[in-house]
Write a structure and sequence with these properties.
Length: 331
Amino acid sequence: MELFYLILIVLLVIVDSFLIQNYASEKKSKIVTNSMGVETIVPSFDVQTGKAFTIIGASVLLFLTVVIIATGVVIINPGERGVVFNIFTGVSSNILGEGIHIVVPVINKVFLYDAKRQEYTMSGIKGEGSKSFDDSSMWSPTREGLQVGLDVTCWFKIDSVKLHILHQTLGQRYAETTVKPAIRSILRSVIAGYSIVDVYSEKRTLIQKDIFEKLRNSLAKDNIVIEELLLRDVRFPAEFTRSIEEKQVAQQAAERMKFILEKEQREAERKVIEAEGQAKSIKIINEALAQNNSYLEYLKVNKLVENIKVMVVPSGTNTLIDLKSMENQAK
C-alpha cells in the first residue's frame, strides 16, 4: 500500500508538468514589424508565464514529494517491532519487522515496541536490575501474618505475533501498568499460603515455581510471555532471625550432648562386654581346674617361663624340677 501511494505521487508530478507545458505551447508567439519593415518574433507573455509555472510547479511538487517520502520512512531497529495505525481503518494486524518501511504520513502512524527479553527486578540492593521501573524488596505477609522481604527478578517479552492486540488493549506502557502489578499481586497471594518456616526451608524452590506458573498463566492472556522468574533472596523479621539463631545454637548444644551420651553409652557397653568376657574366661578356667589339678601347675610353669631366662639340666639323667624353689628363684 505504501509503495502504491509513492507511485501515485510521482505520476501526479509528471502529469502536472505535462499539462502546464501543453497549455503554454498553445499560446503562439507574436510577429512585430518595426518602422523599417523588419519583422521580429516576440514570445507571448503567456508562453513565458507557462514556462515559469512549469518550473515552479514541478519544483514545488518535487519538494513535497521528497518531504512526504522522508516523513513516511520508518526504521525498525534490531529487536523492535512496529504497529501501524491508520486513521481510516484502525490498527493493522500486519506487524512491521526490522528494516526500512515507508508509510503514508498523517494517514498512518507507527508505534514502536521492544521485542527483546526484558527484566523487572525488586531488590533491597540499590542498583540491581536494568529497568527504570525496578523497585526495592517487596514485603509480604506469610500464613502466620509475619512479614518477609522478597528479592525477585522476572524476565519477560511481548508476543510479537499478537502485538497489535497488546497495543489495542494495554498500549506501550504495558510493563508499568500490567507486568509490575501482576508480579506484586501474585507474590503476595502465593506467600500468604505458606508459613514463614516454609519460606526459610527447602520449600523456597517450590514457592518460586508456584509464583512462576501463576504469573505465566495470568499474563499469557495479555500476550506477554513470562520466560523465567528467580526468587533471589528472602529477608526475615529481626525477631524471627534471632529465634532461628537461638534454635540453631540449642540444636548444636543438643547434638553435642547427644554425642557425649552416645559416647558414654558405647564406653559402658564396651566395659560390660569386657567384663562378660573376663567372667567367661574365669568360668572356663575354674571348670578346667575342677577337672584337672595339673592345669594349675601348667599355668605356674608358663608364668615362670616369663622370668627364667636360662635353665641348665644334666643330660642323660632323669631330672626332677622343684616348682617351689623355681617360684622362689623367680621372685
